[in-house]
Amino acid sequence: MQICETDRLIVRRLSLEDVPALTEILSDPEVMKHSVRGVCDEAATREFIEWSLSCYESHCAGPWALIDKKSSELIGFCSAGPEMVADVEEISLGYRLARRYWNKGLASEAARAVLSYVFTQKLCKSVVVIIEPGHPASLKVAEKAGFSGFDELEFYGRAVRLYRLTSEQWETLNDNDSN
């Protein structure tokens, strides 16, 4: 089921048919370098997709497949899914792309599309993004998506920055963009 699209991407629900293609991406140590899950084999990827399917049912959101419009290839995922942060369930933005798609602006494009979808559909009042300070590419994606200001905390034993974007901030950002 398609969620939304951008100029270059189709954003749709993951399915178990995506296990082989997503395993190829999530088994890359460079792609998963900053992931609390670590590198995923086929079984872990299947478990991740099954969890994603349950998120669609419980939250109407979760990790969504990113499909390149030109090639129809699955190139990664972008997520607005539940995450326990300091004993509070938050909706967290996350993204992973196959390495050959890095540095093309696709993560930023996907993040903005997913944020637009969750806020337009009123699926949540705020979204967080959790980033290690030593991950400049992810920090740049978050900034381009409209996140600013952060709290420092420990997440799965790692020092991270927690950024928050509210639906009101999103509306203001997009009102300013259209002027």
UniProtKB/TrEMBL annotation:
Domain of life: Bacteria
Residue ranges of every copy of the N-acetyltransferase domain listed in the record: 9-167
GO MF assignments: acyltransferase activity, transferring groups other than amino-acyl groups
SUPFAM superfamilies: Acyl-CoA N-acyltransferases (Nat) (SSF55729)
Record's keyword annotation contains Transferase: yes
Keyword terms: Transferase
Name of the protein this chain belongs to: GNAT family N-acetyltransferase
Organism from which the protein derives: Aliidiomarina minuta
